[in-house]
Amino acid sequence: MKKTLTTLLLASVSITRALAAQPQDLQGEEAKMALTQYETRISANANDLEALKSAGIILHQLNRGHADPQQVSKAEGYLKKAKDLQANDQETAAWLGSLTTMKALFETDPGQQSFYVKLGTRMLDKAIHKAPDNLVVRLTRAYNSLELPPFLKRTKFAVEDFKHYLKLCESQNCPQPYVVDATSKLTTAEKILADNL
Amino acid sequence: MKRRDALKSMLALGALSLGSCSGINFRIDSDGNIAEVELPEEFTEVDHFQVTHALRDGHRFTIPEPSMRKDVVIVGGGISGLTALKNLADYDVLLVEKEHEVGGNSRRRKANGIYYPLGALLSQGPIAPFTEFFNGLAIPFEPLNEKPMSYHIQGRAIPEPLESGWRQLPLSTEARASFSRLSDDLAALAKPSDGIFFPRTDNKTAIKALDRLTFKQYLAQKNYAPEAEQFMRLILSSRLGEQGDDVSAWVALYILSTLKQPAFTLPGGHGVIAEKLREQGLRRKADAIMTGFTMINMENKANDKVWITGVDADGALQTIEASCAVLAAPKVYAKHAVRDLAKERPGLYDRFHYNAYLVAQVELAKPVADSFETISASHFSRFTVAADWLKSNRSTDGSSHLTVYVPYPGVPGRMALYGESAARLAKTIVNDLYEIMPKSRGAIRSIYLHRWGHPMVSCAPGMEQLCATAKEPFGRIAFAHSDSFGISGLYSAVWSGMEASADARILLEEQEA
Questions:
Q1: CATH topology of domain B158-259
Q2: Whole-angstrom Cα distance, residue B423 to residue B416?
Q3: Does B218 touch chain A (CB under 8 A)?
Q4: Distance between CA atoms of B292 and B314, rounded to whole angstroms?
Q5: Using CA of residue B125, residue B130, residue B132, residue B137, what is the dihedral sign?
Q6: Partner residue facing B132 (CB), from A108, A153, A197
Q7: What are the residue ranges spanned by the domains of chain B?
Q8: Which residue spans within B231-316 are E strands per DSSP?
Q9: Cα B318 to Cα B307: distance, rounded to the nearest angstrom
Q10: Interatomic CA distance for residues B129 and B111, integer angstroms
């Protein structure tokens, strides 16, 4: 009984912390717990914009390393709905673009793979065009461009976006771990770009 | 005297050039002399280049208002355009082709029960990532397991000079050793894991390094014997239409490394693939293809539409309005036909060079070839292919067929080809064959000369970036140049068609949204 109470208490603390953090920062069990909460909210109100966007972002992040077709499809549904509800939200557009490129992983036909990569990166580029100084949009395209194979010629955008992000952070209060990681990833991207020139 | 009779007289006298009339058939007697000249049924069968050459030379056409509307128009019915058609069949799509049939450089004909190629014929089969594509079309690739190539040098035909055959080459010990080293080097470059054989390798670093050099610069580093260098240049001229000194070393070595890969062909070459794609396209949409339409202008309009204007089969100008277009034709055509493209991409299109081939179809009374492909070190007839080397593609009456390819590199070469006396060319090829394949003496029945346009692109170093830039969509126009890998090849054509159709789908779906 005591153990059950402790577990419940810990879970409650974790959920509270999870919901307080940015959805893209959540990992592992915290992310899954937060996702459950957001999905419960979506079940209650299919137009809950914050829940839709957050659930889509969490699923995006959970699938970055090892993508699952069903989860990616579910995330796409959430983000598309969120975008329908708030068409001018470029952060949602960027997350949706990045998620769309993941769909190429589930295809065996090179034409279909190419379609999803082009479609997704085009969404990302449009989001950047409309919100060039949005930190989330910049980082979303930066990480996406870095994670795509170099032959797709997107690494130059990773360099551009990490640089722009770090420049913006000089006058804004960016989280220190973000700045450290962006600096490190910028070096990686620059090396890949140099190797492929 | 009727015009046809006058032309025949001129041909017999050797006074008519190949550029005057494409496709000329010479009957050959048993002594190797021209016995009769036959003009093609249709003078326009192959040569629809009059309109495109007028465009190249700056002729301004009047653009009429659109008389037809489509979701997407594909210009060019080669393998890249037909692949785009396959992927865009769910839309209101129209493919227009300047010839009277689709296939582009992948077409074939049949004579005496033997299919023979008009253009492309060699590949590495249904390799990844295109396995699903080719299997889905049920393409019957046939491996060339036995004697795919002979090298005719100093009066002898040496089978497989890059395999065990190098030991038999009538050359010095040093030169033979150089062939052996070349064989090892090309085998290393052909390795899927760390070679340069796109699309199976991820070794981009090595590819990039080679793409910074010309082939000539590469050769200067390697110190092969002159005889081995000559062999490489012959292979390149047979595949590229030129000897390759100034092309990207990557392109040159990519082509050479295919000699160390399993080789495949089809009865009559890649025409089989074009025919299957055509059948599939028409099955899904019976009116999806319009032939005899030579596009002369393509332009983005302010209303998010594209106008595609061409000369139709009746010689009338017609404009089609579409939500987007796919241009599946060579980059040199895009440069002249797409309004403002060359201005927006200054200098880009001048970096690509095109080479012409003379192609001769030779009918024989009996088989005379000792291998599928014969490369000659010293003859005008540079390489010869025996279509009936495949057991599935043989005549029932014992006759045989050879296709002879003669490269005419660059613009001066092309002009020389147009100015050549057709009768002299035919006679030269007959005499060459007598020397290269002595069994052909007295066996040649006819020789049909046609030319293969100028589809073979050669790219200078840095071609990867050049090709990538050239295939970027321009407004609502996507590009499916079949030479997007830097060479005009099967996989490049398929991949370009796939990519351009992806671009077109995005344009269409965004517009719908």
A1: Guanine Nucleotide Dissociation Inhibitor; domain 1 (1.10.405)
A2: 15
A3: no
A4: 8
A5: negative
A6: A108
A7: 61-105+270-351+462-512, 158-259
A8: 264-265, 289-291, 294-300, 306-311
A9: 10
A10: 35
| Predicted local distance difference test score (pLDDT) of residue B49 | 64
Q: Please report the pLDDT score of residue B297 as a whole number.
A: 95
Which tens digit of pLDDT belongs to each residue from B185-227? 999 998 877 777 766 666 777 888 898 999 999 999 999 999 9
Average confidence (pLDDT) over B424-439 = 95
How is residue A153 written in tokens?
């010629």
B79 in Cβ contact with B273 (< 8 Å) = yes
Can you say how many angstroms the Cα of residue A23 is from the centroid of all Cα atoms in its chain?
9
CA B281 – CA B83 distance, rounded (Å): 9
**Alpha-carbon gap, residue B53 to B366, rounded angstroms:** 40
What's the complex ipTM? 0.78
pLDDT in the model for residue B357: 84
When pLDDT is averaged across residues B313-328 and rounded to a whole number, the result is 94
Q: What is the mean pLDDT of residues B99-105?
A: 91
B93 phi and psi, to 5 degrees? -115, 145
Q: Which of B480, B485, B500 is CA-nearest to residue B198? A: B485
Q: How far apart are alpha carbons B136 and B125 in whole angstroms? A: 14
Confidence check: pLDDT of B3 > 90: no
In A, which residues are within 8 Å of B505 by CB distance? 115
Given this chain, do its domains B61-105+270-351+462-512 and B158-259 carry the same CATH topology?
Answer: no
Determine the Cα–Cα distance for residues B258 and B254; give it in Å rounded to an integer: 7
Helix ranges, chain A (H) = 2-20, 28-44, 49-62, 69-85, 90-102, 110-130, 135-147, 155-169, 176-195
pLDDT beyond 70 at A18: no
- Report pLDDT digits (tens) over B147-165: 789 999 999 999 999 999 9
Indicate the average pLDDT of chain A. 88
B151: CB partners within 8 A, 6+ apart: B157, B158, B161, B165, B169, B231, B374, B375, B377
Whole-number Å distance between alpha carbons of B243 and B251: 12
Contacts of A122 in chain B (CB under 8 A): 506, 510
- pLDDT reported for residue A1: 40
Protein fold of B61-105+270-351+462-512 = FAD/NAD(P)-binding domain (3.50.50)
- B96 bridge partner residues: B75, B290
Q: What is the dihedral of CA B498, B500, B502, B505, to 10 degrees?
A: -130
Q: Is the Cβ pair A153, B468 closer than 8 Å? A: yes
- Cα B457 to Cα A32, A159, B357: the distances in Å are 54, 33, 12
Nearest CB partner across the interface for B503, out of A108, A110, A118: A118
> Any bridge partners for residue B113, and if so which?
none
Range 173-212 of B in CB contact (< 8 A) with A: 202, 204-205, 208
User: Hey, CA dihedral for B367, B439, B271, B500, is it positive or negative?
Assistant: positive
To the nearest whole Å, the CA of A139 is away from the closest chain B CA by 24
Provide the pLDDT for residue B22. 57
Q: Which secondary structure element, helix H or strand E, spans residue B207, and what is its range?
A: helix B204-210
Q: What is the predicted pLDDT for the residue at A3?
A: 44
What integer best gives the mean pLDDT of chain B?
A: 87
Residues in B touching A108 (Cβ below 8 Å): 129, 132
Q: What is the pLDDT of residue B332?
A: 84
Which residues does residue B333 pair with via DSSP β-bridges, in sequence order? Answer: none
Predicted TM-score (pTM) of this structure: 0.87
